[in-house]
Amino acid sequence: MKEWISLGLAILFEVMATASLKSTEGFTKLWPSLLVVAGYTGAFYFVSLTLDVIPVAVVYAIWSGLGMALLVLVSYIFLGQTLDKASLIGIGLIIVGVVVIHYYGEPLSAS
Q1: What's the CA dihedral at 13, 20, 99, 47 to 10 degrees?
Q2: Got the DSSP string for the chain?
Q3: Distance CA 77, CA 91 (A)
């Protein structure tokens, strides 16, 4: 269970870092730049904790799929960005794919 919590934290750190990238203004602003570096460092640290138990292909699929969907939500709420219908359908399909991998995929060995 702790591996799934670590994966969730990796996703949150990655979304925080990615959402903050624009505010670094090309890494010329100190505090936003530090937030981005800390976010990506935390993301890779927490994702590394999952790889002894969860196969890397599953970790990456969930990390990228849910991270992207959460980033879309954060961008909409905090950055005022919008997406067209086709983009929203595509994101929905990615989320469905993550669910299928997680719940219906054949268990793989992590080693």
Answers
A1: -30
A2: -HHHHHHHHHHHHHHHHHHHTGGGTTTTSHHHHHHHHHHHHHHHHHHHTTTTTS-HHHHHHHHHHHHHHHHHHHHHHHH-----HHHHHHHHHHHHHHHHHHHHSPP----
A3: 16
| pLDDT tier, 46 (very low <50, low <70, confident <90, very high otherwise) | very high
User: Up-side HSE of residue 91: CA atoms within 13 Å toward CB?
Assistant: 15
Q: What is the pLDDT of residues 55-101, one digit of tens each?
A: 888 898 889 888 988 998 899 889 888 888 998 898 889 888 878 87
Distance CA 36, CA 58 (A): 25
How far out from the chain centre does Cα 87 lie?
17
Q: What is the pTM of this model?
A: 0.83
2/75 Cα distance (integer angstroms): 28
Task: Extract the tokens encoding 80.
Answer: 């005022």
